[in-house]
Each structure stands twice: as structure tokens, then as C-alpha cells.
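Hey, resending since the last one bounced:
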Amino acid sequence: MQRFVLLAAMALAATTARPALAQAVAEAPDPYIWLEEIDSPRAMAWVEAENARSLAVLERDPHYAGFYADALKIAEATDRIAMPRLIGGQIANLWQDAGHVHGLWRMTSPADYEKAEPAWQTLLDLDALSAAEKANWVWAGANCEPVAEKRCLVALSDGGEDANTQREFDLASRTFVDGGFVLPKSKQWVSWETPDSLIAARDWGAGTMTASGYPFVVKRVRRGAALSAATEVFRGKPDDVFVIPRSFADGAGHTEVVITRGITFFEAEFVRVTPGGTARIAVPAKSELKGLLDGRLIFQVNEDWTPQGAAPVKAGALVAVDPAGKAAPEVIFTPGPRQSVDSDEVSVTRGHVLAAVYDNVRGRAMRFTRTANGWQQAVLPLPDNAAVSIVASDRTSDTAYLSVQSYLLPTSLWKVDAAAATAVQIKQTPARFAADGLVTEQFEATSKDGTKVPYFITHRADMKLDGSTPTLMTAYGGFQVSYTPHYSGTTGKLWLERGGAFVVANIRGGGEFGPAWHEAGLKTKRQAIYDDFAAVAEDLMARKITSPKKLGIYGGSNGGLLMGVELTQRPDLFGAVSIQIPLLDMLRYEKLSAGASWVGEYGTMANPDEKAFWLRTSPYSNLKRGAAYPETLIWTTTKDDRVGPVQARKFAARMKEYGLPYLYYENTAGGHGAGANLKESARTIALEMVYFQHRLMEH
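The C-alpha cells again:
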């Protein structure tokens, strides 16, 4: 007994000493704070030097020119599908190619759209506008007045930032409206209240932006009045994440303006704007608003809910809610235990709700119809076991356009008649790579806690099971985002055709199996996400598909954080790691760019338990001198005003300080992505593929 007590005391002393040491190291003064000054001359000189060093390695590689040419050819291909948007009964599209780097916003009729060569009419030439205004305009969308749909607010971003300017555009004359609405650069959300008034959340001056850098004050802007004369409609709180106003109109003539007050990234209060003021809508905080049908707001509810006087609602369900609260909520659809409704793929037509529903990460399209006997459902006749996206729908008709794709199936576009529950394929993207001899399989890995984690692998059918296959693996693992099957021409052309395998891991943190799958990896439970990813890597090796020196991984944004954690926790599993536009310094992430908005996902350093978790997990704080890390590629963009470039910069600087092998590239344009235009995106893809080719196929 005495020996047992002594050993226990020694163990306790060891466990208490190590965190204290880790905390002292992690919280030592940060020598790279100066790299957080995004555009400072010193920081940009560092970027220029790092770019020169890394590009000298990557662009001089004999594979680079061919990779770039192939990636650009795929990106600029004129035979790709011009994805439609329905505006006023017409088809609109934003098109980019070699001759239109910034893009053409254009329009045609639905009948003409179905032709092989539609007769497009140009609405706005962004290249000409950029040249005339000496700007690097990147298309950020068009928000059209929802009833007449004759005028739109066109949003333009300088270089790809989230911040944008908005100007009123007349579709008939194809010009910006002289004396029309203009909202200068801001992170902003603007919606139409009437043809002559807007509801806008933006930077109204000091004290109107949250700690996350988003607006929390909503004002009414009237036609002909100065922006300074806007009157306040709603005010959130400075510690909210954001406040977003949205306008809805349905086929029966109902209209609603709803303000979403984002209390956290996942919890919100929904407020109607009425002639008498504002009124809260009775839905749970973890809900997402999807549309308006027959006077009812369509929500996806992400927590169990028992409405007053109604039956319980399961998390993940679609629900129709009376905005005024006079009628009980109606359950539209409840997914099963291995099902989920893709939260990004729910839309409304004149008389129906459309949704992409996934069963074990295999998708199908469903139609839901409100009847006197409740909501009826039907499966639309589209290919199963693929990814389904609702590209466009029209409140004035039951026409919708849906796309279908999988790892080996190029994207196709289907025209859907929601009333008849019929679908016909109208367009097909040509294959971008040779898929003969390739197969896609789905396997499961067992994570550290026993959870079964599915993953897809695309590979040659005659692949040798000797651990020799160069393999790329990716995942996201956060924010309830589902990583569904997708067709990537560049991955196929530059990797699969060369004998490589490609893996997507559907780890926890995503939405593949509904809210519970996401919440299993929140905050201090996040190690489960990282264990899931490592488990898939180990399963690939147990099946003798690949080996550590042949396995490369990549991910961006939250997926970039995943890559940083895998690098620092399990460098023994990987031969190459590409960290894209990442979060990496989790002890300071709340203070950087929009970081404060993600406390609901990652936790806060003000909470001792959550801070303790990140002290032992944050990649920037847990790099080790002398560790056997594979050479790492880190890339980001200067114009990213969401995550920002600074965490990638600091991580690279610390790797350099520790004498660790890395390459760093920072695109000085482009927002939270690979580039501001097709050429920049193709360049980034080519650089990354050169890195993987060298690390995995030539070693």
C-alpha cells in the first residue's frame, strides 16, 4: 500500500508539472507578433522573401509548367456548365474564362439556356469595369428585389475580401442606376424591404461592429436619402457574432423580412420586421432559416425541440413555422440516425421544399409538399449515391435546377419539375481526366474511442496492396459542414491519372450524420476530430493501400487547423502536409480577423478548461525543435479578411526558427480561397501538386 501511494504521488507530481511547463513555453512572449501587421512594410518584405525562396523551388520544378497548363485549361474550359440563377423568370450566370478573368454577368431565357450555345446578353463586364475604375473587382453576388426582380444590388469585392461595396443595378437597361442605392465598402448584409427601401447591417461608425468584425446594427435606408439619414430598425449586442437581415417572398404573395441575430456561430435569435416594429420568432436558438413557402418560414432545427402545444422535434429536422406564432410548427422531414439534411442544400419553389438528404454520406434529392394530411415526401429521379446541389429555384414556378456529381462522375445539371417530381438532364460536363480503370470505394475506420468513421477512396482498380500507392487525403471536420462526394478535374488529371489515390475522410465535426456528429467534436471534445483523421490514415496502412512516406494530406481554413494538429501530433503518419489558409495560433485566434466569431466552435481562452486544451493542441504552440516533421507546404492569401494570413506566417516563421523544413507561399490577392481569379487559382493548384509530386511520387 505504501509503495502504491508513493507511485501515485510521483505520477501526480509528473502530471501537474508537465502542463505547467507547457503553459510557460506556450505563453512565452511571441516573437512574431509583428507578422500580424498584415500590410506593414516589414511584414510584406518577409512575405516577398519567403515567396521568392519557395517559388524558386516549386516553379522551377520540371512538372510545374505542365501542371499549371493543365489546371488552367480545366479552370478556363468553355465547355463547362454555366450554372444558372433564376431572376425574374430568366437565367443569369457569372462567367469567367481566359478572355474574361474577372467575369461577365450575363442573362438569357430558360429555353435558350438549354441550347448547346445559348445567346447570352451581357449585363455587366467586370473586366471592363475593373479597367475603367482601376480596381481588382471580384464578383461577390447580386441581391435582387424579391417581388419584381427588376433591380439588384451588385456586390463587388476588392481582391476577394469579404468586405464589399454594393450598387444598385437595373436589369432592363443593364446599367448601374444613376442616383440609386450605393453602400460603400464594409462587411455588410443588405436586403430589400421594398423597391424603395433597404434593410442594411453594416459598419455605421464607431461602436456598430462586433468583436468578430461584423455588424450588429440594422438600419433602414430610403431611396434618395443619404446613408447618414438611415434609421435604426434593430440593434444586437457588441458581443454577438453578427446580425443579418434577409428578405423573402413566396409564390402566394407573402413577404417577410427576418433579422438573424447570431448570438454565437451556431445560436441565433430570429426577429420579424413588421409595420409595428420587430417581433421574435419562436424557434430554438440552434436553427437555420431556409426560405418562405405558403406564408410559413422553413427552418432546419439543429437541436431537440418541444414547441408549446406540439409534438417534439428531433435535431436535424426540417420544420415549417408560422412567423406570427398563431399556428403550431409542422415537421416536414426528420432524418434517421445515419441520415442528414445538407444544410446548404435546402430550397423552396412556388409550392414545394427541395432538399439534399444523405444516407451514410450518399446523397439523393427529395421533394416535400404541404397537404391537408401533413407533409408528403417524394424522391426525385436523379442518380443516387452522389452529391446533390440545388443550384437554382424559382418562387414563381416549380422549376428548379439541380446538379449531381461524384468522384468519378462529372457534374451534370438537371431540370426539375417539383410539382410533378420529375427531372431531366439538360447539361453534362465533359470528363476532365481518364477514369477508365478507376473505382471509388467506401470503408470505415475505427477511431480511438471506438467510433466508426467512414471514408471514400478513389484509386486504380489494379492498385497493389503493398503500401506503395501515393495517396492524398483530406477532410474538414468542423462547423457542421458535410464533405460530400465531388468531381475534381484537377485532382483527377494531376493525381489520379498518374497512379495516385485520393481519400476523403468524413470525420466528426462535420454534418455528415447531423448535429450530433458535429457536436461530438466541439471545443474541448475536439481531440476526437483529430483522432478520427489519424484513424483513417492508420486504416489505409492496415489495408496496405499506402504507407507514411507515401501519404500526403491537405486541408484549408478549419481544415488547415486540422493539418497543423496532425503535423504536430502524428508526424509519423505522413510524408507530406499542405496547410491552406489556416488557423494555427489558437491561443490568439479570437484576436485575429474574424476569429471571435468562432468561439462556439473552438471555445475561448477566457475559459480555463478550453485554454488548457489549446495549450496542448494549438499547432503554433506545439511545434518542437528537432522533431521529425515532413517538409510542410503552407500557403495563404494577403487579402483573406476572414481567417487572415498572419497565423500561416507565424507558423512558417517558427518553423524557420526551429530549423524545420517548410515552404511558404502567400498570394497577395484572393480572399479566403486559392485566388481572386482562375489564373491565380490554377497557379496555386499547380504549386501544391508539384509539392505532392516531389514528396510522394518521387521519393
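The chain has 14 helices and 37 strands.

Sorry for the duplicate.
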